[in-house]
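On clarity, I found the account of how folds are encoded harder to follow than it need be. Since the whole study asks how a given chain folds, the encoding of that fold should be made plain. For the editor and my fellow referees, an illustration may be useful. An entry of this sort, consisting of the sequence and the corresponding backbone structure tokens, reads as follows:

:::
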Amino acid sequence: MTAQELNGWLHYGGGLALWRELYAEHNLMPFAAGNTGVQMAGGFNKEISSVDDIQGLKMRIPGIGGDVFTRAGGTAVNIPGGELYKALHSGVIDATEWVGPYNDLAFGFHQIAKYYYPGWHEPGPTLELIVNKDAYESLPADLQKMIEVAVRAVNQDILREITRRWLS
């Protein structure tokens, strides 16, 4: 789901209730606390025209995206964000996925990667705020509501800000 679809499902389609059900056994209560929108595939030092071009390519791409990339013939590498520029510049990796245009530009990937491709692996990544369920439930109802409203506002504001920064 895109960020907008995911927010709709969480808040109006039962998603938040399912999420909270999963965390309840750990005495935790999650809140959607931001969304960075569609993640880009990122910067590449090689043009990708077909799946054959992925063969042997080393890319920083974690999670399910990395699993798919590996199955397509590439090598998924997990490198911390602070090391990505140097790893891409030195050839330790051939490509990197980070977040999106604003964050990738801030890291300077455009200075060393010749190609930049749209993403497919994280269309609506949600950031989360996790609180102790007992502590939250011990608060008066008005304070619980204030937290809920504030977190929902932050969730939407982060998506708006990152979207605006992408457009700059």
